[in-house]
Specification:
single chain; about 260 residues; Alpha-Beta Plaits; 2 domains; 4-stranded antiparallel β-sheet; 4 strands; about 45% helix
């Protein structure tokens, strides 16, 4: 989730960031809070009259994010009082957590298994082991086996995607296929290195075929559609979707 706090003086901004860092000890392990100071003054010996900070607050569930947002709002108000300035707390955008449908997962798992695991060449495995060696993890290569389908855990691995918003409006099928070397750092160069060569291409083709086969199954199997729609209706009962993006045109950029 993206959050922006705007303060009248850098003193208030510093009070806010201090509060954010203290808050880290009082939130669940699934919470992530990141920030960057975009405006902090012009020259060292002049107290800035304006400061701006951009903050991201994330959690594995929307309810968890909302709790963090409320704390950040309170800290923004408190920081403004500390510095004797005005604070403006603006939500720029954000996304909901994904609504995972187990019936849809079973359909995708069946499609995936119909094609079987990925077969990697010796050269591809040597490439993967070289990456693992360079990053200090076990040289196990890249795994082509299909892992067992598991029920959605209460606190799944994190990630941000606007598919989460869509999933609360219409039933969606979520598919993720990792082909990077096992245990290698994520969100880093090892993923880019393997995604841009034959290892990544094999994963892309398998994912495309799996989604296409699942789409055919949805068209042909009315019972599967009914089960997916029934689960969606049950899990969204009483939920009113409201996006985080503010209404109206986007604000003019600050110069």
């Amino acid at each position: 989730m993206i959050r922006e706090g705007v303060f009248g003086a850098v003193d208030g901004l510093e009070a806010f960031t201090h509060g954010v860092n203290l808050l880290r000890e009082h939130v669940p392990p699934s919470v992530r809070i990141h920030y960057v100071i975009q405006r902090g003054g012009d020259v060292p010996n002049v107290v800035p009259e304006y400061a701006r900070l951009w903050c991201w607050a994330r959690d594995s569930t929307r309810a968890g994010v909302e709790r963090v947002i409320e704390r950040l709002r309170e800290m923004a108000d408190g920081a403004a009082k500390i510095a004797g300035v005005e604070a403006r707390f603006t939500i720029q955008t954000g996304c909901w957590d994904r609504l995972v449908l187990e019936e849809a997962g079973r359909l995708l798992d069946s499609s995936l298994r119909s094609f079987g695991p990925i077969q990697y060449t010796r050269q591809e495995q040597d490439f993967a082991r070289a990456i693992q060696r360079a990053t200090g993890v076990a040289e196990a290569g890249t795994l082509g086996e299909i892992a067992p389908l598991e029920a959605q855990r209460p606190d799944p691995p994190g990630g941000s995607t606007d598919v989460g918003d869509v999933s609360w409006v219409v039933p969606t099928l979520h598919f993720s296929l990792a082909t990077a070397p096992a245990k290698a750092p994520w969100h880093a160069w090892p993923v880019v290195a393997t995604a841009g060569m034959s290892i990544g291409h094999k994963g892309m083709w398998l994912a495309a075929k799996t989604l296409a086969a699942a789409a055919v199954d949805l068209f042909e199997d009315s019972a599967a559609r009914d089960r997916i729609q029934s689960e969606f209706a049950r899990k969204t009962r009483g939920v009113v979707y409201k996006g985080y993006i503010p209404a109206g045109p986007p604000p003019a950029p600050l110069r």
